Amino acid sequence: NGRPRYVADIFPYKGYIWNYGAFPQTFEDPDHTDKDTGCVGDSDPVDVIEVGQAVCAEGSIHRVKVLGLVALIDDGETDWKVLAIRSDDPMADRIQDIQGLETHMPGLVGATVDWFSKYKVPDGKPLNSWAFGGQAKDADYAHSVIAATHKAWSRLIHSENETGFALANTTVRTSPHYLCAGAASQKLRALTGASLGQALADSAQAPAKWHYVHNGMVTNSSA
């Protein structure tokens, strides 16, 4: 809504508990009901939880090994969370799958499910639910989801019809929404300026407090 978004500190978690990003060229289709989750997609790329040792810089790009996924149901929509580890991480050779993740990083998958269950409660929303009872699916299943959402993205980026999504891009030359670098720069200049300055001012006012969630409610908050 034109405002910065913050992740609440929900005790005992301080912000994100892993690196959090997304796979480019994927799309969780809001017009498609997944046969396993029974819910439509959430109109976003597929999210990636990277569990490696290093904290990644914002906007950085990394090659990862897919380990599996969990399927969050967020506001009634399917929100896939792929569990992965950077290919160059010191632990990457030891962790091949979900079982390896549980062996070498015990408790991380459970903490991930707990975090995503609660993370919107400080905003006044209910606990999130899960497909598959919150159990992680294996790497083969995750790869099938990535492939399906890539096909959905390809349909979207090549669509001639009005979709309601911002599809302007500088990389897919076969897309009707392709822009050359010069046209894209003009678009960006038109979008920045005052709005960017306001966003930076707002970001300086990020709230800093702990939220304590119990039985789906915030029982206390402390600065």
TrEMBL record:
Transmembrane segments: none annotated. The keyword Hydrolase applies. It is an enzyme of class 3 (hydrolase). SUPFAM superfamilies: Inorganic pyrophosphatase. It comes from the Eukaryota. One of its GO terms (cellular component) is cytoplasm. Keywords: Hydrolase, Magnesium, Metal-binding. The keyword Magnesium applies. Its EC number is 3.6.1.1. GO terms for biological process: phosphate-containing compound metabolic process. It holds the Pfam family Pyrophosphatase. GO terms for molecular function: inorganic diphosphate phosphatase activity; magnesium ion binding. Belongs to the PPase family. This is inorganic diphosphatase.
